[in-house]
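Issue 218. Parser rejects a valid record. Input:
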Amino acid sequence: MQIHSDTFNMTLQNIPFINLRNEFARYYHSIKNKSLISQFNKFEKPINTPYMIWKGMDDDLVSIICQRVILGIESYLPGAVYFELILRGAPKEKIILTRNPFDLGGRGTVDNYYHKLPALIDEKHSLKLFNKELYEKVKIFYREIRNPLFHGYNISGNLASGIQSIFDFLAKIYAWIDSWFDIKKLFQKS
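Output the parser choked on:
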């Protein structure tokens, strides 16, 4: 799907679904095997990442990577619900609701994305019901990390352990999504 802005003379289109997951996986691998974080806090530049060569400050890089993967999961989740609803033969009216999770009437991003959106498939897929402890941690993550990071704050200090903990946390979110959505189904021939 494409959206065009006449005001800014620019066209936007959906990021290919699999790219969101692959970007997370490549960054996560480079964090786990220390190839990325071993480059932090050194005066040697550039820093090589799976997707760019960075010549700026380490904390800016970590902030940009974290923003990018958080946006990735916030895009992947509605896409997973959308495709799962299609695979299950859900009515078009329900499928359309995945376009804007905020139309679901929840009390903020966490409620709409992690509770109401997956409950469109089945109530048991809501993170709030599936794993209450993880759901509560998502609320803390949004309050303490995600929202400040998207409103003028940068990650600083403890870059290696900080990015590791964020990626470990987001991997748990992807594991929850994988519990009810198998992306491989999209690539199987019918």
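Fixed in the parser; the record now loads. The chain has a mean pLDDT of 93.
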